[in-house]
Amino acid sequence: MEIFKEIDSLKQRLQKLRSQSKTVGFVPTMGALHQGHMSLVEQANKDNDITVVSIFVNPTQFNNKEDLEKYPRDPDADFALLEKNSCDIVFAPSVEEMYPEPDTRVFSLGKVAEVMEGKYRPGHFNGVCQVVSKLLAIVEPDRAYFGQKDYQQIAVVKAMVRKYMPDFEGEIVSCPIKREADGLALSSRNVHLSPEQRQSALLISKTLFEAKKMSDKGASQKQIREFIKQNIATDANLCLEYVEIADSDTLLPIPGDKPKNAVICITVYDGKTRLIDNILL
């Protein structure tokens, strides 16, 4: 496994590999890697000759300085896990390497970036678009892999590529949420949970699984929303920030009473840790 910290040296290495007709899969991450990330690496390994993983905690997508500072970082453990899982190349740049000067670009993507996370974390998706557009331009992958736990992020990235990167020829690949055996969605933020909070967090996925059953049996959007709100409120450790039932492609509200081709997106504070999850209906 090769580790690069400079853009130019990485591009030179990838150019050489492409000259040998090697296909490149890319997994962008912010480190603190877990088996959810490894499922993306596994898929990239299956689909491509070379797998590149980036590790970069991107400051421009944090609208909360404290959240940025406490974001978990353990590069040595990340490198060891990636090597164990047959990653070929790691790109681990500094902030100065990625942003030699401030990135002032503003991405106008409409509603898909304004609802849910866009509403509660202003500026977040603009920062995501800044860094992902840079990374895609650097790596030029045949395929880039994103986990569906960040469901809205995938929709935003696809919209950004369509509108702002017309020359990008790679494919944006979304991969299923990876969960613990008990249902908890894998997340780098889970390390912040106490044992009691970890137990409370299980209610999030359990509630979503039950909501899907309700939808399958014909429950209305209103009934599903009320069930989710009331169920999450039964645990004192949990505080619901939002729950939205939206079109699975556009993330816009669904007309009519019954959710079809929909996704439920939920954000819950477990103590001070902000957890997100979703389920397709």
Describe the structure.
- The chain is α/β, with parallel strands linked by helices.
- The protein folds into two domains: 2-175, Rossmann fold (3-Layer(aba) Sandwich); 188-280, 2-Layer Sandwich (Pantoate--beta-alanine Ligase, Chain: A,domain 2), CATH 3.30.1300.10.
- It has ten helices and nine strands.
- The strands form two sheets. The protein has a six-stranded parallel β-sheet, with helices on both faces. It has a three-stranded antiparallel β-sheet with strand order 7-8-9, covered by helices on one side.
- Helix 7 crosses helix 8 (151-164) and helix 9 (195-216) runs antiparallel to helix 10 (221-232).
- The protein starts with a strand and ends with a strand.
Quick synopsis:
The protein has 281 residues and is of the alpha/beta class. The protein has 10 helices and 9 strands. Helices cover 41% and strands 20% of the residues.
